[in-house]
Fold this sequence. Notes:
Number of domains: 3
Structural class: alpha/beta
Number of strands: 7
Mean pLDDT: 90
Low-confidence stretches: 346-350
Strand content: 5-15%
Distance between the termini: 55 Å
Amino acid sequence: MWYVGLDVHSKQSSYCILDKGGQVVQEKTVKGPVSRVLAELAAVKHAFTIVYEASCNYGYMYDELSKIARRVVVAHPAQLRLIFKSKRKNDRMDAKKLAKMLLLDLVPTVHVPSRGVRAWRGMIEHRQRQVDERTRIKNGLRALLRGRGIESPRRLWTKAGLAWLRAVAFEEPLDAIRRDDLVGRLELANASVQRVEAVLDKMGREHPGVVLLMTIDGVGIRTAEAMVAYIDDPTRFRHNKAAGSYFGLVPCQDASAGKNRLGHITHDGPPTVRRLLTQAAWQGIRRSPAIRAYFERIRHDDPGRKKIALVATMHYLARVMLAMLRTGEVWQPDVPEVRAAAAGKETHAA
């Protein structure tokens, strides 16, 4: 078996091939698109396993390399300390170091979902970008009204509110043109979001995992579909607490010489899921006595601990969702174990 380290870029790529003894068989830099380096590797007659760093096209590379390699390993870029802390760094050296790490079985890997799940994640992120753009347009309209001293109705984004907005008379013609442009963009954004959400709603209603997570008080289809898409395979997590680390909800830690310093959360993982978990946590606090009890236990009636309690509640929901996807059980807030977890107590079997 040979071991190949591949450093991929859009305009050129480098690879290094080692034999089972760690000796270099071949090193090469291929100029041009990734299709050229794939053709070069397809011509290798000896069986090989290959590693490369995850990037924006890691899914496509995984699919293509799986056709020609015995095994494909995708490395976690942020955890490749050997490369990032090196004082000498170039593409050929990176490829060689990747090959050595693969030979020694020291590569920190990432999970590669199927093509369908990758497309699902992409659609979720696409919808979030559309919503963000729509929010910017709404902020632009509100800023225009405030800048001219015009008080807007409370429900500005309804049909009646938009009709009022179109009828507003501005003293400056340029302000009217600006208003018309923003309203037109808002209508297009609304239609686009509705089209995307219709597709996602259909997928969510047909997915048993999404339907399962929606049994939790406060968890809607947007949060449920994002959690299912990014968790993908619940069995790849060693335990339920790993969900908090995966979604960046655990604090940074600096422990040394008996001192343990905890900082802000790591913010690892997809930020879209954290945003949706934030909304779900607030809804759960309002609707579920069990979730509200958990939040209040962390807050200790201290307004300064409100954010800490919210993050802890998000972490709690992530753990619960992962456990539900593992077992297939629906949300049961009234069972003794859940009440005890919310109250911070332990139960013992009789």
